[in-house]
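in:
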């Protein structure tokens, strides 16, 4: 039975927003049982990675292709709205914005029972092994395009 179990990668909704359920574990919290501020970045990273996985884009394949690439966060603006606590069931929403050259623009929202816990405006870049910014592969850009939402 266990060999048939695979972790969820979440899913895109009809609204083109990717949603990934996550649970707050004790290890995510400080001594008070509230999520430590840096751990929110982990939740957002899982949302970005799994949303790409749902598009058929994996970090391993990017790194091992003929022209290897990696994704790196260039800029992130996080707003903490309310505290998440141990055992909370959260949902990471990832919203794709129009690509700008090598820059991949995303908005992310962390919710608990529909209420906003934290938000992040993210600018990621594709980079070659030397650290130079490169446009994403055409296949990645084409997979991304149907899920792009216009700026608010």
């Amino acid at each position: 039975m266990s060999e048939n179990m695979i972790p969820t990668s979440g899913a895109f909704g009809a609204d083109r927003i990717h949603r990934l359920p996550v649970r707050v574990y004790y290890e995510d919290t400080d001594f008070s049982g509230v999520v430590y501020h840096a751990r929110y970045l982990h939740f957002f990273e899982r949302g970005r990675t799994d949303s790409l996985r749902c598009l058929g884009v994996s970090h391993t394949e990017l790194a091992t292709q003929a022209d290897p690439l990696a994704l790196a966060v260039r800029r992130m603006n996080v707003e903490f709205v309310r505290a998440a606590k141990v055992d909370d069931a959260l949902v990471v929403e990832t919203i794709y914005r129009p690509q700008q050259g090598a820059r991949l623009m995303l908005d992310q929202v962390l919710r608990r029972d529909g209420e906003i816990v934290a938000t992040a405006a993210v600018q990621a870049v594709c980079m070659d092994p030397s650290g130079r910014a490169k446009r994403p592969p055409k296949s990645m850009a084409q997979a991304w395009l149907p899920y792009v939402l216009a700026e608010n």
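note: The longest helix spans residues 39-54.
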